[in-house]
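Please produce the structure of this protein holding S-adenosyl-L-homocysteine.
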Amino acid sequence: METKAKLYIETYGCQMNVADSEVVVSILKEKGYEITEDIQMADVILVNTCSIRENAEQRVWGRLDVFRQIKKKKPELTVGVIGCMAERLKEKLIEEEKTVDIVVGPDAYRDLPNLLENAESGHKGVNVILSREETYADISPVRLDKNHISAFVSIMRGCNNMCSYCIVPYVRGAERSRDPKSIINEVTELLEKGYKEVTLIGQNVDSYNWKDEKNEKVSFSQLLEMVALINPALRVRFSTSHPKDLSDDVLHTMSKHPNICKHIHLPAQSGSTRVLELMKRGYTREWYLDRIKAIKIILPDCSISTDLMTGFSGETEEDHSETLSLMRQVIYDFAYMFKYSERPNTFASRHLKDDILESIKTRRLTEIIDLQNELSAKSKKEDLGKTFEVLVEGYSKKSKDYLYGRTSQNKVVVFPRKNYNIGDYVQVEIIDCTSATLIGESVI
Ligand code: SAH
Ligand code: SF4
Ligand code: F3S
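Below is the modeled complex.
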């Protein structure tokens, strides 16, 4: 019997890449590849990459060093770089790192079997063609998550926003929405397999806009409702919302369906209208705060998280203090915070100077992280004494006697296992908290 070629895949970057790796595995399994979690056993190593900040790319270069060592001992090994960094650097990747055999961009994964076959016979290959149509709608992703409780479902690809600092539109191409029928099918299949939660993902889910042959439209709030109606026991999340496009319609749909989780990730980037304009974000501080107000009125128990960037071109101390004041005003439950990293060929790299000293970027970043730690602690303290429905996702890292899961608000809760199992919905009263987690006791 012929043994199957073994594929090892490593994923960096955002949820889109996590979902794409599952598409890639599906495409290759179909062609007879078998997944391995042991890199030493691999016949093919694929690394799905991110270009969002320079350090994201540095990490991948570091991994390529490791793969080179493995290949020294095993010359027949094929190494492929896929994803956003593949798209950005194209054949340069092969020129600079001889270990690399194939380079495949995010819209060219259907060509992987062919490129791998050629690589086996010694021909290196590059396919970085971006598409206006590709959504991999017909491919049923092979889930790589451990617990089989929660899955990402990609509803759109690409981005049309062209924020001045951002590489995504260049490496992911133009925005396109996926056929809602294929989304519903995928979610239904997940439910049948025992999944309890789906997260609908895209770079800007609010601009989801499907038109069918008869020109009938499906908006994001309609899609959200369709997914929520599949089964009331299935939790529905989504990410990322864009402040310029987040509509009251979406908020009302969330309020109507208890199974749509009450959490919105609304990246602000900066609290200064002047900086937002330079970033080409398409909204002002006032507009952003109006959206926050709408969330707080329509969804009083909704948590809010964000992305923030410090040290963008020309950011003054005053701009920075406006970011701090925005944070205090919103009281974010959680935030991802970054130093601005100039990306080649973006609008900002061509027209704006990366003129904030590294030491100042770092100091400002520390200030926003410190403030966010305070706000996160405050948000957790407010949960003490409250009872939440927690979807159990797994065992606590520290002890098998404890389970962990998340509330609708996306906060992590750890509590004693008793007779509960992974996948259960449990009512948990919050009795304590650490900096990152809520600690509770099941009730009833
Ligand atoms: N589509 C999402 C974000 C995708 S990228 C949105 O518009 O909100 C995730 C986050 O990375 C961004 O929100 C931003 O905070 C950060 N980011 C993007 N480009 C960056 C850059 N050049 N330097 C530093 N951080 C960046
Ligand atoms: Fe990048 Fe802006 Fe698109 Fe988000 S909305 S992916 S930040 S261009
Ligand atoms: Fe990175 Fe690409 Fe996502 S650049 S953040 S992996 S879309």
